[in-house]
């Protein structure tokens, strides 16, 4: 595991980039949530879960290349990302389930905060950690 700052720069710099990517992905998540609940008239839990998936796909590519500037190969990073996202999905759904007594957008804000910190720590130190000695493969990522 790479415990220091990777190619993305300092931990502080990576955290700022992660926050920017997170805001973008979260915006997409929330737009999908609102669409599913308000226009499709499905439950907030379903809307949150569908939105989470949309945000997760965006999040993978932006964090891999922009935030952490990872050289990890997709065949290594994708399975780790899936584990991270599934755990985050459970955290998100659990928060939404446990906070049903609150307005659904307040519940979602709390859930998002929990998942945000989970994803940064796991993403930085496991999912997108690049081997310091990995040989260059001329841009091939599979």
Structure write-up:
The chain has one domain. Helix content is 72%, strand content 0%. The N terminus is likely disordered. Helix 3 runs antiparallel to helix 4. The protein starts with 10 loop residues before the first helix and ends in a 15-residue tail after the last helix. The chain is elongated, with a radius of gyration of 16 Å. The longest helix has 29 residues. The relative contact order is 0.17. By secondary structure, it is an all-alpha fold.
Helix coverage percent of residues?
Answer: over 70%
What fraction of the residues are assigned to beta strands by DSSP?
A: under 5%
Spans of at least 5 consecutive residues whose pLDDT stays below 50 are: 1-5, 132-139
Total beta strand runs:
0
Count of distinct structural domains: 1
Our count of helices gives 4
Radius of gyration: 16 Å
Overall mean pLDDT: 86
Globular, elongated, flat, extended or rod-shaped: what is the shape?
A: elongated
* Element order: H for helix, E for strand: HHHH
Taking the alpha carbons of the first and last residues, their distance comes to: 20 Å
In terms of structural class, how would the helical and strand content be classed?
A: mainly alpha
Q: Main beta sheet, described?
A: none
Describe the SSE topology.
Elements: H1 11-39, H2 44-67, H3 74-98, H4 104-127
Question: Any descriptors?
Answer:
142 residues, 72% helix, mainly alpha, 0% strand, single chain
Briefly say what this structure is.
This protein has 142 residues and is mainly α.
């Amino acid at each position: 595991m790479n415990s220091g700052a990777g190619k993305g720069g300092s931990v502080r710099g990576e955290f700022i980039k992660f926050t920017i990517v997170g805001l973008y992905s979260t915006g997409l998540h929330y737009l999908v949530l609102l669409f599913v609940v308000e226009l499709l008239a499905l439950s907030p839990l379903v809307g949150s879960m569908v939105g989470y998936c949309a945000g997760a796909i965006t999040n993978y590519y932006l964090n891999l290349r922009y935030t952490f500037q990872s050289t990890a190969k997709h065949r290594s990073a994708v399975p780790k990302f899936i584990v991270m996202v599934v755990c985050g999905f459970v955290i998100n759904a659990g928060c939404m389930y446990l906070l049903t007594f609150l307005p659904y957008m307040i519940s979602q804000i709390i859930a998002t905060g929990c998942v945000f910190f989970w994803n940064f720590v796991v993403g930085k130190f496991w999912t997108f950690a690049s081997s310091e000695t990995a040989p260059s493969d001329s841009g091939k990522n599979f």
